[in-house]
Amino acid sequence: MSLVGSQGIISVIEILIASAVFCLTFIVIRSFRKQIPQGAEEAPRTKGLPPDRQRAGAGEQSTLTLTQMSQTYGDVMQIQIGTRPVLVLSGLDTIKQALVKQGEDFMGRPDLYSFRHIADGQSLTFSTDSGEVWRARRKLAQNALKTFSVSPSPNSSSTCLLEEHVSKEADYLVRKFLQLMEEKKRFGPLSVHGGLCGQCHLLPYALDQFEVVASSGNAVDFIPVLQYLPNSTMKKFMEFNKRFLRLLQDIVKEHYESFEKVRRHHGLLIEQSQQNKVEANANIQLPKEINCFDTVTTALSWSLMYLVTYPDIQKKIQEELDQIIGRERRPRLSDRPMVPYTEAFILEMFRHSSFLPFTIPHCTTRDTVLNGYYIPKDLCVFVNQWQVNHDEKLWKEPSKFDPERFLHAGGTEVNKADGEKVLVFGLGKRRCIGETIARWEVFLFLTTLLQQLEFSVSNGKKVDMTPLYGLLMKHKRCEHFQVKQRFPIQSSELPLDIG
């Protein structure tokens, strides 16, 4: 039997075969599609970022775009960047639900091309590993940081080694600023980076390359073909990581030869891994990490920008420091509860600048449901900290820079509940392990600088607060800063050489 049409003769057998192939293909495709749990639904899908912003990645403008899109699609939405689907989380409650309450589901890291080149793929922060060895390494690093930060200082009046070390560096920075004023009659707040990174010649220049590549939405991670095309930024990024890794290996080798403690700590890591029944051939190594990058120096640089933009706020901080600390001694960590306005300024600087607009990308470790939406395993996740820090539901006039929003009535203490709403270092199981030290360092540096120096800009000059996007958002260069000493430094207080 056959059917006759304008195109010729088609047999019934051919029609049956075509129908069978179609049905089989449909069944196969449907079998590979994840079954959405009953009561859940797929996350809203958007058309994705505009092509120009996809090429730039999730930059400053894309930060605003994703924030605006969340107002339409909600706190859980899915976008397409290149060939990769990405889940974008906004809203403080939603982010807490995902990273804290459902932390095990969202604690992974995506397998991104750029991440494979950081610390030879063994980075504590960027690697895809989240198993028992990773947990043991993270715990070891946390203990090491805690031990260093609270160990008493035997050689000075500082309360701990961290305070002693940072105080010396802060004094060095004071001297550096005064030297720049004497030689060049001006300087820029980005001099903070060169001053504090001077110990390692790689950092001041190469970190910019690192941050651009490692930021959320780097094109090479989302458009695979770009991995095979010439890319000068990626090349510099890879070279920097190789050199930095060699530097760390040399330092670790030196410590192994000099300190028995390091061997004991390493043995503790192995013992802990064995107790957790980690496979014998697992890759057990001391963490190789670029931990806080220049988070502290970026925070200080933004702080100086706000201080010269709002001189009345600078004066108010200095009045508080003069009243509580005076001029006869250096600031200490124990002063923090007694200088609430200074603490409020630091919180507002973190919130308003949001120079960490996204966390390092997360990844789901298993199929899960969030806010009623089905989220499949291995989905890349962007966490929009900028949106939380500028959410009108949380903050009155979020675009206004106002440290007093963090103070209780009367201004005598910081409102801790409001302070905890500011997202800077992430949340949950991937929260930055250096957060406490970073906050302490920002406080000590800032109070030491403002105790001794007064900052301003040249007459007729203005500062441009427009952020430049990377892993950290920095401001545009401003080379018109002025600084003067507030009071003479006694000979016994001359800055120590930390080099």
UniProtKB/TrEMBL annotation:
Bilayer disposition of the protein: Peripheral membrane protein
Entry keywords, A to Z: Endoplasmic reticulum, Heme, Iron, Membrane, Metal-binding, Microsome, Monooxygenase, Oxidoreductase, Transmembrane, Transmembrane helix
Residue positions binding heme: 432
Enzyme Commission code: 1.14.14.1
GO cellular component, one term: endoplasmic reticulum membrane
EC class of the enzyme, as a word: oxidoreductase
Superkingdom field: Eukaryota
Renumbered residue ranges of the record's region Disordered: 39-61
Keyword Endoplasmic reticulum: yes
Gene3D superfamilies in the cross-refs: Cytochrome P450 (1.10.630.10)
TM segment ranges: 6-29
Role, per record: Cytochromes P450 are a group of heme-thiolate monooxygenases. They oxidize a variety of structurally unrelated compounds, including steroids, fatty acids, and xenobiotics.
Name of this chain's protein: Cytochrome P450 1A
Organism in which the protein naturally occurs: Gopherus evgoodei
